[in-house]
Amino acid sequence: MASSLIRRPGLATGPGTLERWLTGPRIGPLPSRSMREPPPLLSFEFFPPRSEALEAQLWACIRRLEPLAPRFVSVTYGAGGSTQERTHATVLGIVRETSLVPAAHLTCVGASRAETAAIARRYWKAGVRHIVALRGDPAPGTRYAPHPEGCAYAADLVALLREVADFDISVAAYPETHPEASSPGADLDNLKRKLDAGATRAITQYFFDTAVYLRFLDRCLAAGISAPIVPGIMPVSNFAQAVRFSALCGASVPGWLGELFEGTENDPETRRMVAAVVAAEQVRLLQANGVDEFHFYTLNRPDLTYAIAHILGVRLRPRAEAAPGDRAE
Ligand SMILES: Cc1cc2nc3c(=O)[nH]c(=O)nc-3n(C[C@H](O)[C@H](O)[C@H](O)COP(=O)(O)OP(=O)(O)OC[C@H]3O[C@@H](n4cnc5c(N)ncnc54)[C@H](O)[C@@H]3O)c2cc1C
Predict the structure, then answer these.
(1) Is the CB of residue 105 less than 8 Å from the CB of residue 87?
(2) Least confident stretch, 175-179, 259-263, 313-317
(3) C-alpha span between 147 and 171 (Å, rounded)
């Protein structure tokens, strides 16, 4: 081929091409999961819609992901407690209209303990058995201050929920440390307090550097934590937005990620393909390291999550067959 005759500047006097290729480290393929092994357990996070158009988008997303039989799907609670009714309506819609197990996010922000307990009781009565218990973020531009009669921290909320009913409770964990924590050690102590208060698992803030998460698991184990610390996976299709959001929530954005998305600002198709490759590589690496539970921040868009679930070995099950929480055989 003519191209083999083209000399690359700067390499003319260096080692030959093959020699150069062969002096790098040898990296083997990631091990593939055998299709005989059970596929991983998945959960999906949605946010409550603000408009009819967004409502239609949410329901299209739910319907697309439902046959993957996630063990639960969760619905967020807006910053400052701003979506209480919409979160409630969405969770109840999921109870009524689908075969999915819903988990309602509930925060401490702006509510007394009595009001929070009343919301939890309302969920229990409606058949909701899983709560994602959070301190919550205050309304944008304000600092968090606990309600004078409310729960100050998520650990207090977990304890309150335990008094209300026998909920399955998930809490948040931060592989890169929560931005308001006084130290990584204090943040880890807080995670342990939440689990000791009665939570059954933690779901992590999203991260892009897999090594950061794996090191965090080591620290959790050393701190005596044995509950699952489920990785939160954020398939990034809007890089600029992810950078803005990461600055707020304390997730670092590695330089290589910016380089991968560079030049795709006006090219959504390429951006989506890059996003799929990045997220697929991340979950494959986690899976190769033994992780078999994943939580996806779907942003109410199903396609990347669906494709990545497929790569993880999860296969479609017809709606009638799909028992949420089962590992599909
Ligand atoms: C999986 C996941 C889902 C989320 N969903 C939502 C949502 O639906 N709605 C929403 O508003 N936000 C949500 N968030 C964001 C979350 O509310 C914020 O990160 C919030 O700032 C902290 O919530 P937390 O539950 O981790 O708080 P906590 O565990 O209470 O910790 C908050 C901070 O206080 C510190 N702390 C805890 N206890 C003490 C103490 N006794 N003394 C001193 N410091 C203490 C902690 O180290 C930490 O820095 C979510 C986050 C994650 C990871």
Answers:
(1) yes
(2) 313-317
(3) 20
Q: Where are the beta strands (DSSP E) in the chain?
A: 41-46, 72-75, 102-107, 130-134, 168-173, 201-204, 229-230, 232-233, 293-297
As a residue count, the chain comes to: 329
Nearest ligand 1 atom to the CA of 249 is 19
Q: Using the mean position of ligand 1's atoms as its centre, give its distance from the Cα of residue 135 in Å.
A: 5
Measured from CB, residues less than 6 Å from any atom of ligand 1 are: 76-77, 79, 105, 107, 132, 134-137, 153-155, 172, 178, 180-181, 186-187, 190, 194, 203, 205, 232
Q: Cα–Cα distance between 146 and 149 in angstroms, integer?
A: 8
- Residue whose Cα lies nearest atom 17 of ligand 1: it is 136
> Helix, strand, or coil here: 309?
helix
pLDDT, position 9: 55
Q: What is the mean pLDDT of the chain?
A: 91
